[in-house]
Amino acid sequence: MPYIIDGHNLIGAMPDIELADPHDEQQLLDRLRAYRARAGGRSLIVFFDSGDLPVYFPDPSTPGVRVRFSGRGQTADDAIVEFLRERAQPGQYAVVTNDHGLAERVRAVGASLIQASDFATRLAHRAVRQTPAAEAPALDPHAPAFADIYADFLEADKAHARFGDASPADFETWIEKLYGDDLEQAQSAAFWLGHYGGAEALAPLRDALTHADARVRAAALLALGDLGDPAGLSDLCERLVNDAASMARAAAAQSLGRIGDRTVEACLEEAAQSDAKGRVRKAARAALAQVRARTSFHFAPKST
């Protein structure tokens, strides 16, 4: 029996994952993959609200753990019910949720129900390994200081999956797409330039920060983080403070977290405390933690 996971509802039932954490979805997916590897068999389909994710947002699905985002103007609950109604045998599915309204709807179409609080207990169950007293405590791979390392690996994998082996000769083609009328191609062009454009990509990506469409601006802001050029830090701070779209402001915060130094702490603190959108505030808080962890690691005085 495949399980359908009401993603954010399950996160709310997890004792050690916070909905306010900008990486809460990734943490849940990591748990689900570990659970499936341990328990085996059943496939998992996780539904999340899409919010205002960029169009090019990569599919985080892996074998056995598929991820679906609700459509624009649609809730994850609606997406789950729509998915079940399209199945020939919805009774073969069990929906994991604590949402009473969703529970009634999925029962009405014939699916079964598992309480998210019960499923969270399953995910939390782990084999306990005895640690010798002399053994040093393990480093936490989810600590902010390690975020840059994991981000680099993930972005490299995403880029290779999307573009394969890139050729420098493609630069002019992607520049044309960045300035073209096709918005999805413009977003993809920004993504390519951030990974493969090098120093020449800085100027066109800066130009794209004034694009009329927020999705293209967000793509360009994320691309500046991929590019890693400190010359783009002032642009990222300016967009974090002044861009009208929360999507773009959150993208600016994310890139500042990846490449920012101590000079960007003030603008991140301002956004973390006073931005009108909760998703931007939490992105700024996460970015600030990354910057401080990284700069502390790099600049901590040596003990004598």
> Helix fraction?
40-55%
- Indicate the radius of gyration in whole angstroms: 21 Å
What structural category characterises the helix and strand content? alpha/beta
Mean of residue pLDDT values: 80
Extended strand count: 5
- List the uncertain runs: 127-162, 297-304
Outline the biggest β-sheet. Answer: 5 strands, parallel
Cα shape: globular
* CATH class category name of the largest domain: Mainly Alpha
Per CATH, which architecture of the largest domain?
A: Alpha Horseshoe
Figure out the total of helices. Answer: 14
Overall number of domains: 2
The end-to-end span amounts to 61 Å
In short:
This protein has 304 residues and is an alpha/beta fold. Helix content is 55%, strand content 7%. It folds into 2 domains: 3-124, HAD superfamily/HAD-like (Rossmann fold, 3-Layer(aba) Sandwich); 144-299, Leucine-rich Repeat Variant, CATH 1.25.10.
Structure, explained:
The protein has a five-stranded parallel sheet with strand order 3-2-1-4-5, with helices on both faces. The chain has helices at 7-13, 24-39, 76-85, 100-108, 116-124, 147-163, 171-178, 183-196, 202-208, 214-227, 233-242, 246-259, 265-274, 278-299; strands at residues 3-6, 44-48, 65-69, 94-96, 112-114. α1 (7-13) crosses α5 (116-124), α11 (233-242) runs parallel beside α13 (265-274) and α13 packs antiparallel against α14 (278-299). 55% of the residues lie in helices and 7% in strands. Mean pLDDT is 80; it is low at 127-162 and 297-304. It is an alpha/beta fold. The protein is globular. The chain has two domains: 3-124, HAD superfamily/HAD-like (Rossmann fold); 144-299, Leucine-rich Repeat Variant, CATH 1.25.10. It contains 14 helices and five strands.
